[in-house]
Amino acid sequence: MNGPIPVGRPDYLRDGSTLRSWLFTTDHKRIAILFAIAITFFFFVGGAAITIVRMELVTPAGDLVSDDTYNKLFTIHGIIMVWFFLIPSIPATLGNFLLPLMIGAEDLAFPRINLLSWYLYMAGASFTLAMLVLGGVDTGWTFYTPYSTMFSNGAVLVAAGGVLISGFSSILTGVNFIATTHTLRTPGMTWFRLPLFVWAMYATSLVMVLATPVLAMTLVLVMAERWLGLPFFDPSRGGDPLLFQHLFWFYSHPAVYIMILPAMGVVSEIITCFARRRLFGYSFMVYALVAIAVIGFFVWGHHMFVSGQSAYANLVFSFLSFMVAVPSAIKVFNWTATLYRGSITFEAPMLYAFGFLGLFTIGGLTGLFLATVPIDIHVTDTYFVVAHFHYIMVGGAVSAYLGGLHYWWPKITGKRYPEAWARFAAILMFFGFNLTFFPQFVMGYLGMPRRYHVYPPEFQVYHVLSSGGAAVLGAAYLLPLAYLLVSLFTNERAGPNPWHAKGLEWQTTSPPPRLNFDRQPIVPNVPYDYHPKGGPVEREETANGDAA
Amino acid sequence: MTGLRLTLPEASINAHLVDIAFLVICGIGGAILLLLLGLLLTFIVRYRRGTSARRGPLPEIWSREIEIGWTTATIFVAIFIFWWFVGASQPPPHNLPGQLEIHVVAKQWMWKTQHPGGAREIDSLHIPVGTPIRLVMTSQDVIHSFYVPAFRLKQDVLPTISTALEFTPTETGSFHLFCAEFCGAQHSRMTGTIVVMSESAYARWLRRQPHGDSLVREGENLYAKFGCGACHAPDSQVHAPKLAGLAGHPVLLSTGAQANADDAYLRRAILEPRADIVAGFSPIMPSYGAVADTSDVEALIAYIKSLPVEGKPR
After folding, report:
1. B312: pLDDT confidence band, cut at 50, 70 and 90?
2. Which of A387, B122, B158, B169 has the fewest other C-beta atoms within 10 Å?
3. DSSP letters spanning chain B
4. Is this structure's pTM higher than 0.95?
């Protein structure tokens, strides 16, 4: 659409093929690929850890691994999935790749800082791998004091050090995205013409920049108490064990929004494209994103209803938690309304987006139980909470990540993925996920505590169902790994815009050149302009010129 | 594998309230979920590509009103649930007449409980049905959490700091006690049994227990052993605050602030005596944290609370 491709211009994948040209690249697209390889590796490491946990839980007795090993396995699963997969997942891969493309820029504002961000992630990741080699850590991903500082025998310092370093990677990515969105928008790309994905990256970046330093401080205090014996959290020497929980959740609740806001951005892109419809209530969607990012900073106390904090604090945090549910609900309504009068097709990305809608809604609605103090007192630290946050983080964030990966796969690699396999995997994942996590709501309400190696036999039925679901889910995750890798070696060229989508990223070649666009794009219109004259323009009608 | 279990006994007043709240939110949430899934399915079928459904533009003003409408409705639902559960859940009144105060000490990986008469248990707790119970809990090491699903109650148990849990059991039977806060290698084995008995059965059970000293008795012995009276006795030559009648009363501090001599204050006064200096006294008391363990401190507090104004134990 930008005229003929200049002769001999390589795409970014062919622009240098040495290892050096990858490891010292400042191209946001190549850095996105580096991140994608690293987080995929960690996703399967974290998945392997929880596979053993789910196998152990098939029987009530502790007959597969020892209690200490069990505790280390769920800790490793948590640390890796939260900090080395979910937090960087969409921002560092899809965000890194797409943010400059979507706003018509040549790269991020600080390309070398972007590379530094990947090296910091890898440094943190190597600490985490060292932690595994040194025998693991058994504190849970939450590092609660005084257990983590005075009692645990695991490699707490190494684990906390790894998370600390990877946090700086998040901060740098956030700063980079904010600067890029402010300064590098192409002519015509006003704030209210930004695709929702860019808004989501912007809101996520604000949370990363404001919340992650608090995590860094908290981990430094933990390391200082464990290493140097400084009594920040030891109550027998005047410290406060609850101080840790306040600081930790002040980061870790907003961290949930670091995981889910990008997912909301991805889903907005997919639903508009496959419903051939403008986003319903665009400006409300933007305000809702910002509202979630802001209110998300004031709800951390709902993790501490049974910690001994005052009953009045509990009520305030409960009220604010109900309030943060409102913008999330509005987003779900808007996505649903976007389908109204659309022209819907059911490619794999759309199936993932539908999966996201259902699972995120269940995750969000079960949040209402947890915001209600007396119910939370009963179900906190049980499998009910485990199920709730997996519906948000796996049912929501991972579904959206995979949906986005399929949607932009042609852009990133220039190849098409096998549609039938992809649809099968998406559907299998949806059923496997529900079979794994729905029984956990039930057993959680019946009183099954989380992080239990052995458990009373009356919960076995639910654990067997859950482990069976986990096996299905595991298979469904391996499928895309296989067929996406195979697709790289096929000759099925995707073309610049296989979905006939409207975003700027589709106006350049697939894969894009080193500097993204052969000619600077200009934005004349609102985003998601799928039905300029009213009704949706069918794909066939827009196909002229796209199939270059 | 035992059969599918779908219900949990409601063995306290609180349990019933929690279940009602749970069902109400299930109803509201279920209605929202059904509405959304219904719309989603309708749209998917009606507006899939190739159908002849109308696909004209939406009037801008219309979509704006819809947005404002469902935003308001969602805020209303959220505030309604909040308002409703705050109204429905009254905090248990403190110091009910006939309340049984039981001390709980948690440690890796066991629960130690002590009845007012001195009877002690490990990993179990016998209580009479229909009697208001107050558990006063501390931990000797890390954070634990006292969780009884049948009562729908949970309270973290913190090192040094004491927390309390109040409830009235309404059903006899044996119920699970779990530690719900991860506390180390054998966290999942830090479990026990709550046995709720009829009042007469509880009285019989209590009589059969080997009677150690009551907590107050034990505190009195420790008071003598640690030589607390050398300074705190009414006729002591050392200028130290008198303990008789202190518990539960306001104390003026040297900073000019006023503190209430509750359990937490007394515990801090024993473990960190220099944190709060009573007005008119010198900071001369050493910390007893090194010699008195968690249960000793509990016993000393119980003894101090038993002292009437005259200076003799009740």
Report:
1. very low
2. B122
3. -PPP-------BHHHHHHHHHHHHHHHHHHHHHHHHHHHHHHHHHHTBTT------PPPHHHHHHHHHHHHHHHHHHHHHHHHHHHHH-PPPPSS-TTPEEEEEEEETTEEEEE-TTS-EEESEEEEETTS-EEEEEEESSS-EEEEEGGGTEEEEE-BSS-EEEEE-B-S-EEEEEEE-S--STTGGG--EEEEEE-HHHHHHHHHHS-----HHHHHHHHHHHTTTHHHHSTT-SS-----TTTTTSEEEBTTS-EEE--HHHHHHHHH-TTTSPBTT--S-PPP-TTTS-HHHHHHHHHHHHH--TTSS--
4. no
What residues of B are in contact with residue A339 (Cβ under 8 Å)? 40, 43-44, 47
pLDDT for res A392: 96
**Nearest CA of chain A to the CA of B152: how many Å?**
5
Contact assignment for A341 to B153 by CB distance below 8 Å: no
**Chain B CA closest to residue A311:** B91
For A59-78, the pLDDT digits (tens) are: 999 999 999 999 999 999 99
Beta-carbon contacts of B135 under 8 Å, excluding residues fewer than 6 positions away, are B102, B103, B104, B146, B155, B164, B165, B166
Closest chain A CA to residue B92: A311
B125, two tokens: 């707790």
Taking the C-alpha atoms of residue A223 and residue A215, their distance in angstroms, rounded to an integer, is 12
**Of A292, A293, A518, A263, nearest to A398 (Cα)?**
A263
Q: Are the Cβ atoms of B48 and A446 closer than 8 angstroms?
A: no
Residues A173-194 as b/e (b if ≥16 CB within 10 A, e otherwise) read bbbbbbebbeebbbeebeeebb
For chain B, positions 17-76, list CB contacts with chain A under 8 A: 17-18, 21-22, 25, 28-29, 32-33, 36-37, 39-40, 43-44, 47-50, 53-58, 63, 66-67, 70-71, 74-75
Task: Determine phi and psi for A12, rounding to 5 degrees.
Answer: -65, -25
Q: Which of residues 275-294 of B touch A (CB under 8 A)?
A: 275, 289
What is d(CA A426, CA B41) in angstroms, rounded to the nearest whole number?
18
Contact A302, A375 (CB under 8 A): no
How far is residue A308's CA from residue B36's CA, in Å, rounded to a whole number?
38
**Contact partners, residue A240, CB within 8 Å, separation at least 6:** A232, A233
Report pLDDT digits (tens) over B85-115.
888 776 655 667 788 999 999 999 999 999 9
Interface of B with A in 128-167 (CB under 8 A): 141-143, 145, 147, 149-150, 152-156, 158-161, 163
- Is A344 close to B47, i.e. CB distance below 8 A? yes
Interface of B with A in 67-86 (CB under 8 A): 67, 70-71, 74-75, 78-79, 81-82, 85-86
Find the CB nearest B75 among A326, A337, A365: A326
Average pLDDT over chain A reads 92
